[in-house]
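User: I'm curious whether this sequence folds into something compact or stays loose and floppy. Could you predict its structure so I can see for myself?
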Amino acid sequence: MKQLLQAGIITSPHGIHGEVKVYPTTDDPARFRELKTAVLKSGAKSERHGLESVKFFKNMAIIHFSGIDDMDTAQKYRDWEVLVTRDQAVPLGENEYYTADLIGMDVTTDEGEALGTLTDILQTGANDVYVVSTERYGDVLIPAIRDCIIQVDVNNNRMKVHLLPGLAEEKK
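Assistant: Here's the prediction. I'll summarize afterward.
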């Protein structure tokens, strides 16, 4: 399991005092108000910063991180990830999982067939849809519902699914 979870992406500076616009990648953007620190990461570089202020405008969080005090410095953080430690993450309910823990899981069917790897999660209005890349069927879209998701084992990076009729068609 990853110890750092993505909460947002810095898109651009905001104003001249070092604030940055952050596109939230969390289900609950208001969570930024509760954060005391975050890890900013780009490639192999990472830095821990305190959050000095947080406000919201449209779909963005406007955050002032400690040590980023002018527009030129803020510009250097464009496209950096905003990460939180697992203990700062929003608590999960029953049968809920962090996206970072699901991506890359090995997926098998309830009949024992090695299906493929979970590569993406699509968020729809009703339920999430897991994208599983397979050699046999191409990308298979599996709704994240009880009828399809039999077992999720985060510790062993495995998921067992039941393929409803029509979900997996042989590639031609």
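Summary: The domain at 99-161 is CATH 2.30.30.240 (SH3 type barrels.). The two ends are 36 Å apart (CA to CA).
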